[in-house]
From TrEMBL:
This is N-acetyltransferase domain-containing protein. The keyword Acyltransferase applies. It comes from the Bacteria. One of its GO terms (molecular function) is acyltransferase activity, transferring groups other than amino-acyl groups. It comes from Actinotalea ferrariae CF5-4. InterPro entries: Acyl_CoA_acyltransferase, Bact_Acetyltransf, GNAT_dom.
Amino acid sequence: MDIRPCTDQDLEALRSRWPAAGDVHGKHHARQSAGHATYLVAWRGDEPLGSGMVQWDGCVGPAAREAFPDAVEINHLQVREEFRGQGVGGLLVRAAEDLAARRGRTQVALGVGVDNPDAERLYLRLGYEATVVLDDTEYDWVDEDGVVHHEVERDQVLLRTVRRPAG
Ligand SMILES: CC(C)(COP(=O)(O)OP(=O)(O)OC[C@H]1O[C@@H](n2cnc3c(N)ncnc32)[C@H](O)[C@@H]1OP(=O)(O)O)[C@@H](O)C(=O)NCCC(=O)NCCS
């Protein structure tokens, strides 16, 4: 498996092999091009397995920003359904942490829906610690019929300290 920041060439492969309504891949890639984030994608050959973002400008939710102003946030973590439970999500988190540590960032935050105990279990196993900080995250998504759905999700912030690699 290869985990790397999404290149221009990768973007075209992503759009055709893993179509997402609302051009989600394009939006994440544009945010990366503007220097605000890194859009990491896991590949097996030319098949995209999953992806996640590292937000260099810090946590997205206001409560998390205030409580942890120096943290980077990993968000939009998603593994395609048919590839879940094979370690892809865990490796994406570790790759994001490595990037953060190489940039000298030591605090990594993750928001997990309070109704998503499966994902929370993974993050706790990866060494993240629960905090008492909660944020309401609002987002829109477009379904296959082009209908826009507005969602409000209550997220608990989890935190992990990472170390800059030696050498
Ligand atoms: C959460 C997610 C990214 C994990 O990716 P993954 O590649 O399946 O994870 P790994 O194989 O590295 O680790 C497996 C662990 O992920 C969690 N997990 C498994 N299936 C899951 C699912 N459908 N939804 C949420 N978490 C799941 C469990 O903790 C599992 O551990 P277990 O086998 O002991 O139960 C992936 O399941 C997913 O995309 N879920 C839907 C979107 C989502 O919830 N994203 C997280 C937002 S915070």
